[in-house]
Structures are given as structure tokens and as C-alpha cells.
Design brief:
With about 300 residues, the protein is an all-alpha fold. The chain starts with a helix and ends with a helix. The chain has a two-stranded antiparallel ribbon with strand order 1-2. The protein has 13 helices and 2 strands; from the N terminus they run H-H-H-H-H-H-H-H-H-H-E-E-H-H-H. The protein has a single domain, classed as Ferritin, CATH 1.20.1260. The structure holds acetyl coenzyme *A (ACO). The site of acetyl coenzyme *A (ACO) has 24 residues, from helix 2, helix 6 and helix 9. InterPro entries: Aromatic_CoA_ox/epox, Ferritin-like, Ferritin-like_SF, PaaA, PaaA_PaaC. This is Phenylacetate-CoA oxygenase subunit PaaA. GO terms for molecular function: phenylacetyl-CoA 1,2-epoxidase activity.
């Protein structure tokens, strides 16, 4: 890598050009993108588990159909993202191996259990709401395939967000038991949703380089602030109590949160959350159960090749 190559690359980013797969890029840019996009893909795939667990227990056919569509969308998002990472030279096998052996990270949020049906609504409203804030920013990322995947994913996430909000608002205004279920879900998901947007800026080693290269356009704390500013007033309007006694609005109109328990966050990231083990076991089981499909595809491909050679 010469200083001239780097300068030309950074000039393209300054001009708002997209970097495409065959273009010259610094090795560190490629590595950062593979890291981030593969973690993102794993998050989509593992993210199917907490919700998938409730498909058989949905309270109505209508809610079941929405949930099935949503979980299916997450699988599709995982596919786009693995493809985007493949354009940078990562292989599907390497990425899946890293996930299944526990070496790869995926979003902390999916290591929390879904204890009641209201959790499904709260995931839509808060988790997908946080994901949209982060991913709308990433739709402007400098790497073409990632930014384009984000545009499609965000429009699907918007439907997920709306269905979650509609559900929680209905329960918050429903019977006493429904209100209690909605409040309990908020009590358990509020803080993990804030943590999901990443460590505070002072503990975020990747942010400066990612911002310099136009991958992230905002810091973790900036995105977190946007998320709280949108969601806090809506949750309060729905009649729910946000479990943060220090939460207040400042003179600029920003909602300021109390201290986040970063010890809990890092414990979850390091694999010691409530559901880390169960999630990895479930992914490994699904992968093993799918072995016959991969074998059949390989056998088919081998036969096609040998017929072509005849
Ligand atoms: N869960 C698990 N690990 C996390 C989380 C999280 N919520 N937030 C940060 N980390 C990890 C980072 O991956 C990084 O680890 P690494 O260097 O070993 O890879 C470390 O903590 C330090 O964090 P940062 O320096 O702040 O990392 P970064 O600048 O990449 O910012 C962020 C983290 C905001 C998650 C970024 O990677 C991103 O925008 N990723 C794409 C979006 C995404 O993955 N969303 C997943 C959930 S959306 C959904 O599935 C519905």
C-alpha cells in the first residue's frame, strides 16, 4: 500500500463515491468491513432464535403470520449480508465456522431470553427500532454492496418496527394483565436495547477508523441518542414507565439517560449472557441437521460436472 494509493482512496470517500468490490482498498478497510458485515450477518441469523421460539405460541393467526414473515425476513437479511462479506473475499465456510465455534461476535441483544409474548412486540419496537437507527446510518456507508443491502433491509425493518409498536401500544392500553406484561417486557428490554448500539464512544476502538473511511457516519453514542429521542416520548405516551429514574429531557430537547451497566454488556459480549450457550447450541444443531442438504447439493454438483465432462 503506497501513500498515493491511500490518498486516492480517501479522496474518493471524501467525494462521496462508493467503493465497489473490484476497487483498490486498504487491507484494513477490507478487514473492518468483513468483521462488521459478518457480525451483522450472524446477528440476523441468531436473531431468528428468540422470536422463532414463539411462532407456535402466537396468540392469533394474524400475529403468527406476521411473526413468520418477520423471522423469514431475518434469514433473508443474513443472506444478503453474507453475500456482501463474500464480495470482500471472506468465504461462507469461514464465517459460519467462526460463528458455530463461538469465535465470532454477534449482537449482544440476542443473548436475552424471550419470556412472554409481549417480548415479541418489544423486540419489534425497541430492537428493530435501534437496528433501523444504526442501519439507516449504514445505508450511507462507503462500501457499495453493504450500503445497498442496508436500503433493502431498512425498509423491511420498518415493517417489523411498526408491527412491534402497534402490538405493544395495544397491550399497554389493554387489560391489566396485558399492561403488566407490556411493562415487564419494557423493564427487561430497555437497557439491553441501549447497549445493543455499541459501547460508549470512549470505549469504541473501531469508530475513529470507520468514520474516517465513511463506513460509520455517526458514533455509537450519537445513534443511541437518536434512538432514545424517538422512543422515550412514544413509550411514555403509550402509558409505559421507562425503567430509568434519571431519564430526563435537557434544554436542547435530548433525552438524557442514567448510567448504563457496561459490565453487563461486556459479560454478554464475552459469551457469559443468559442465552449465549443456548443460542450457539441451537445454531450448531440447525447446522448439523442441514448437513444432508449440503451433501445433496455437493453430490448434484459433482454429477453435473462429470456429465459435462462426458
Ligand atoms: N454486541 C456484541 N458485540 C458488540 C456490540 C454488540 N451490541 N457492540 C459492539 N460490539 C463489539 C464490536 O464488535 C467490537 O468487537 P471486535 O473489535 O472484536 O469486533 C467491540 O465490541 C468494540 O466496539 P466498537 O469499537 O464500538 O465496534 P464498532 O465500531 O464496529 O461498532 C456496531 C459496533 C455499532 C455494532 C457496529 O459494528 C455496527 O454498526 N454493526 C453493524 C450493525 C449490526 O451488526 N447490527 C446487529 C444487530 S441488528 C439486527 O440484527 C436486528
Amino acid at each position: 500500500e503506497t501513500p498515493e494509493q491511500l490518498a486516492a482512496f480517501e479522496a474518493r470517500i471524501q467525494n462521496g463515491e462508493k467503493i465497489e468490490p473490484g476497487d483498490w482498498m486498504p487491507a484494513a478497510y477490507r478487514q473492518q468491513l468483513i468483521r462488521m458485515i459478518s457480525q451483522h450477518a450472524h446477528s440476523e441469523v441468531v436473531g431468528m432464535l428468540p422470536e422463532g421460539a414463539w411462532i407456535t405460541r402466537a396468540p392469533s393467526l394474524h400475529r403468527k403470520m406476521i411473526l413468520i414473515a418477520k423471522v423469514q425476513d431475518e434469514a433473508g437479511h443474513g443472506q444478503y449480508l453474507y453475500h456482501a462479506a463474500e464480495t470482500l473475499g471472506a468465504t461462507r465456510e469461514q464465517m459460519l465456522d467462526a460463528l458455530l465455534t463461538g469465535k465470532a461476535k454477534y449482537s449482544s441483544i440476542f443473548n436475552y431470553p424471550t419470556l412472554t409474548w409481549a417480548d415479541i412486540g418489544m423486540i419489534g419496537w425497541l430492537v428493530d427500532g435501534a437496528a433501523i437507527k444504526n442501519q439507516t446510518m449504514l445505508a450511507g456507508a462507503s462500501y457499495g454492496p453493504y450500503s445497498r443491502a442496508m436500503v433493502r433491509i431498512c425498509s423491511e425493518e420498518t415493517f417489523h418496527h411498526k408491527q412491534g409498536k402497534e402490538m405493544v401500544v395495544a397491550y399497554a392500553q389493554g387489560t391489566p394483565a396485558q399492561r403488566e406484561m407490556a411493562q415487564d417486557a419494557l423493564d427487561r428490554w430497555w437497557w439491553p436495547a441501549l447497549m445493543m448500539l455499541g459501547p460508549s464512544d470512549k470505549d469504541s476502538p473501531n469508530t475513529p477508523q470507520l468514520m474516517r473511511w465513511g463506513v460509520k457516519l455517526k458514533t455509537n453514542d450519537e445513534v443511541r441518542q437518536e434512538f432514545i429521542n424517538e422512543h422515550a416520548p412514544e413509550l411514555i405516551e403509550a402509558g409505559l414507565t421507562i425503567p430509568d429514574p434519571l431519564l430526563h429531557q435537557d434544554e436542547q430537547g435530548n433525552w438524557i439517560h442514567g448510567p448504563i451497566n457496561w459490565d453487563e454488556f461486556w459479560q454478554v459480549v464475552k459469551g457469559h449472557g443468559q442465552m449465549n450457550r443456548a443460542r450457539l447450541e441451537a445454531r450448531n444443531r440447525a447446522h448439523d441437521d442441514g448437513a444432508w442438504v449440503r451433501d445433496a447439493l455437493n453430490a448434484y454438483e459433482t454429477r453435473q460436472h462429470s456429465q459435462a465432462a462426458d
